[in-house]
Amino acid sequence: MKNLAVTGYKPMELNIFNNSDKRIEFIKEAIKRRLIPLIEEGIEWILISGQAGVELWTGQIVLDLKEEYDVKLGVIPPFMNQEQRWKEDQQQLYQSVVSQADFFRPLVEKEYEGPYQFKQKDRWLIAKSDACLVLYDEENKGTPIFFLQEVEKSQKKDLPVYYITSFDLEETVREIQESSSGFME
């Protein structure tokens, strides 16, 4: 496995409405804990479309991990200027991640035209990936369901899909709280 596509919820689907929300750090830690073993097993490229939430947080993590690991970040948005209607703090985060990515190119050199562009993006990511990592909980469907439906429809029936679930997030929170409170000492 060389290429890993990562996706998941947008911030509002997690009831996160600003970049200073403390839950983001727990989510990022859970993502990091899943990425490191995959990178150590040979993943070379992390591919994201750069959507706000899980994908941009993953981008930040990969950029940090580059200090220790030989891993590259590819950002392939579905269309040009996808961030133009986002809040300013999300736009700044997007620009920061994009400016440091090893590869950046919109899938099509057009502005937003319709929802079909998101399907195209999902299909492209699936076609270019050897595995996928999705932050997703079946009890809270949200937008990741569209990506997962495209995985089901794809020709890659044996494509590994790894999940970060609400249980994984709870476990990460518990472990961080225990280690920071001196519980483990």
UniProtKB/TrEMBL annotation:
Matches recorded under Pfam families: YpsA
InterPro entries: YspA
Domain of life, source organism: Bacteria
Transmembrane portions of the chain: none
HAMAP family named among the record's database cross-references: UPF0398
Family: Belongs to the UPF0398 family.
Protein name (record): UPF0398 protein GH754_18700
Organism (species): Salinibacillus xinjiangensis
